[in-house]
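Need residues for this backbone.
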């Protein structure tokens, strides 16, 4: 067929526009897409090539794939704009990325200001975060985003039930400084809370404390109010004298890895007997494994990590196969080995799916795939890793 792209068609009829783009695109191959990093979000995933090109795939109703269309894609699509990035993060229904010069860009849903561009206008392609701040890292949560500046300060923007850490519960469409004059090595934006690790290895959390996800040994309220300090609008120190290398905030729980590779989690968790409980302070993950990074997921309340030998393990709820152990184990309280004998550099746990990058640079995903978030060209759930294809 002869391909003619009409801008007014793409703008006014996004579904037809997406079909035209797909029809005019080169034929898809089943070769693995080489990536250096991958990030699993709500129902979409994003990744980064060695050359700095960002790709996203999965659900796209809010423009979270950043390719200028509104339709879902079950294989990776390049993010529009031709920008070169060094990091990318997939959130609930938006995504953010960072350039080598420290400029942050975001795209997708923006009804609470989570893109940080000073508006609440949804964007289907990257827009710069307002303020001209130089960032060292950026992390997209469910309805908010946080980053660490080049000077080590925490900045957050978007929906704010306390998770922006600025002492208020006011949504922000531009970055605001996290209270406390803390210097962070990294921050992680979850659903209704945020956590970070200081340059001294101390973990702090802020926001909604239901089920003890702030880890400060305080009872979590059912609802946040400005005068309820158990739901903190400023950073509170995670209980204990544990020195952390990094933390990951999920939907209803938080996990971290110590400087010696031990994993701890707090918040909503599974007991060994398979029942749910609340842990309001860090609890050691069973199994005696030594982890490099860990990633706390969303709706599935699952967590995954990579050991120092490159083996991937997951634990928690696994009804869609998000644990990757070739089963639909509903409740797995301790780490299980991800199937396939693959060696990973890192894994990322999304709402109900998980993705990782192998030492060879191939991306694999597993779990729920209704929106094409596994990137294998299908919408079939997978109980074990499948390769992300071009």
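Answer:
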């Amino acid at each position: 067929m002869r391909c003619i792209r009409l801008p007014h068609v793409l703008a006014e009829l996004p579904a037809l526009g997406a079909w035209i783009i797909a029809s005019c695109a080169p034929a898809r191959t089943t070769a693995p897409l080489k990536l250096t990093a991958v990030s699993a979000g709500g129902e979409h995933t994003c990744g980064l090539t060695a050359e700095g090109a960002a790709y996203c795939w999965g659900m796209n109703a809010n423009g979270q794939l950043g390719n200028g269309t509104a339709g879902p894609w079950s294989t990776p699509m390049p993010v529009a704009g031709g920008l070169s990035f060094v990091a990318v993060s997939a959130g609930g229904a938006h995504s953010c990325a960072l350039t080598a010069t420290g400029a942050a860009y975001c795209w997708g849903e923006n009804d609470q200001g989570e893109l940080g561009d000073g508006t609440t206008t949804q964007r289907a392609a990257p827009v710069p975060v307002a303020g001209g701040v130089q960032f060292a890292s950026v992390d997209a949560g469910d309805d908010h985003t946080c980053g660490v500046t080049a000077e080590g300060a925490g900045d957050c923007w978007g929906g704010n039930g306390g998770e922006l850490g600025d002492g208020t519960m006011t949504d922000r469409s531009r970055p605001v400084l996290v209270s406390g004059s803390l210097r962070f090595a990294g921050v992680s934006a979850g659903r209704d809370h945020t956590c970070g690790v200081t340059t001294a290895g101390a973990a702090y959390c802020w926001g909604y404390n239901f089920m003890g996800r702030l880890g400060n040994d305080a009872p979590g309220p059912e609802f946040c109010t400005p005068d309820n300090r158990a739901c903190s609008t400023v950073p509170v120190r995670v209980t204990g004298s544990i020195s952390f290398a990094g933390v990951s905030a999920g939907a209803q729980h938080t996990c971290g890895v110590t400087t010696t590779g031990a994993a701890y989690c707090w918040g909503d968790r599974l007991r060994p007997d398979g029942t749910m409980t609340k842990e309001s302070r860090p609890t050691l993950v069973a199994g005696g494994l030594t982890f490099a990074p860990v990633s706390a997921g969303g709706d599935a309340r699952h967590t995954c990590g990579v050991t120092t030998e490159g083996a991937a393990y997951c634990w928690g709820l696994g009804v869609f196969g998000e644990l990757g152990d070739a089963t639909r184990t509903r409740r797995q309280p301790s780490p299980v080995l991800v199937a396939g004998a693959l060696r990973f550099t890192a894994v990322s746990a999304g709402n109900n799916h998980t993705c990782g990058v192998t030492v060879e640079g191939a991306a694999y995903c597993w779990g729920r795939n209704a929106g094409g978030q596994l990137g294998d060209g299908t919408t079939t759930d997978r109980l074990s890793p499948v390769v992300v294809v071009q």
